[in-house]
Amino acid sequence: MSETNAPAPRAGAKQWWGLAVLVIPSTLLFMMLTILFLAAPSMAADLSPTSAQLLWILDIYGFVMAGFLFAMGVLGDRIGKRLLMVIGAVLFGIVSIAAALTTSPELMIAWRSVLGVGGAMMLPSTLGLIFVLFADPKARGVAIGVWAGGISAGVALGPLLSGLLLEVFGWQATFLVAVPVMALVAIGAPLLLPEHRDPTAKIDLFSALLLVASLLAIIYGVKRFATQEPAGPSIGLLIAGALVGLWFVIRQLRAAQPLLDVRLFANRTVSGALAVFLLSAAALGGVYSLFTQYLQQVQGLSPMQAGLSILPAAAVLIVVSTLSPMLARRFRPGNVIAVGLLTQVVGYLLFTQLDAGTGLGLVIASFVVTYPGVAPSMALTTDLVVSSVPPEKAGGASGLATTVNDLGISLGVAVIGSIGIAAYRSQLSGSLPDGMPPEATAAAKTGIDGAIAAAGQLPGDIGEALTTAAQQAFTSGLNAAGITSAVIAAVAALIAAVGLRHIRPTGRAHDDAEKETAQES
């Protein structure tokens, strides 16, 4: 038998142990998107951030990581994927320690930004090294499935782990948990993973900076509106962000080797699936971050109790994620995704009915209905995107799917969280008790954390009245977020049902699917 026809070598124990070194940090990197949701009240009590600063702490990590993913992927090709992964792990571990020791909200925002850079160094290398590690296509498919499952688990389990850590330790533990994982990567990667580099790869760092600048300018403009800052600068930031984004797109279209192949969006499957996933993740991210604070600040649960309250929804999410590919073999994937999103719409509408006195059973049930609805788009998007492009573009398409996964949750925290803050402040302004000292009023308007802290320093009746007003105002913010997310999820469901209806069930007519892909490409 000739060498070209020889079967690919089978994966051995070293390859599967190497996979563990790739999956564990990937899970943690996405866990860091949501692990601070439950820690936010404790962190706010220690750092005293404004509500806008708290949002930056929660979402800046995801924006920076998403903005630098493609650039770091090319840098890994240039200097070596394994080397960049180890450098990223060391950076992530050191900065996690620094963040745990931080006492300033401004410094915390900075450290979370650097963590985003460290995450961007590692994540593209984890997927790229799976392709290097597993020559056998069947084993590689299993490995990629495990990797994707680890990412989904990270997003789902972040608040659960946070609740357990907060019960025993402080919010600092949500950062320190990364240190042993990164030590494992730094030690295990050189022992178990091969190196891979492409000296001809050309990195376009300027394009990466343009992408990050565009995202942050637009998000900063949105957050200024929420904090009732003067409209002129906010509008200017939005326009500037849009122009920088346009500059980025034009630069990619003109580049011989673009950082991001924007022409992939001309493929209707790619654009439709990514739009659906971005919208569904954004709708969930905003409500998720507010809901975890509602459980503690309004329902009065401890961090562990709040984490356990999320557990039923997380369990259903895992089940639905497992079933979604099976359903897509019998029914059109677009319809499977649309049904999940319509279920989310029902859940978000339930959130609009919550108030400060709602029983915990209904609160948990609302999230059980809402959370699993994102599972079909989460489980099916990457495969839909990658399978719809030619093999030589599969890497770029996979990177797009990973970036959207990362970006969607942070976008929801920023935009929908800002809407919740605006609703909170509007409601609170008209319900503050008489006799409030100016400093207590100012603290209350920064967010519910500031209001509860201020209430503890006031005489009994006024303090209780302020706590009640703040809890009612925060619930109004959650209601407003629920309405916004319901609209976004409904739009995403429409796009899935109409924009992806050309995709046949994955278990039928494989030849027809290949013809469709060839026509679109």
TrEMBL record:
The answer, when asked if Cytoplasm is one of the entry's keywords, is no
Location in the cell: Cell membrane
Q: Principal place where this protein is found?
A: membrane
- Could you tell me which SUPFAM superfamilies the record lists for this protein? MFS general substrate transporter
Q: Which Pfam families match?
A: MFS_1
Q: Where is the Major facilitator superfamily (MFS) profile domain?
A: 18-504
| Protein name according to UniProt | MFS transporter
Organism's domain of life? Bacteria
Which species?
Dermacoccus barathri
Membrane in keyword set = yes
Record-linked InterPro entries: MFS (IPR011701), MFS_dom (IPR020846), MFS_trans_sf (IPR036259)
What is the membrane topology noted in the UniProt record heading this document?
Multi-pass membrane protein
Q: Which UniProt keywords apply?
A: Cell membrane, Membrane, Transmembrane, Transmembrane helix, Transport
Q: Where are the transmembrane segments?
A: 16-40, 52-71, 83-103, 109-135, 142-165, 171-193, 205-222, 234-250, 270-291, 303-323, 335-354, 360-386, 407-424, 480-500
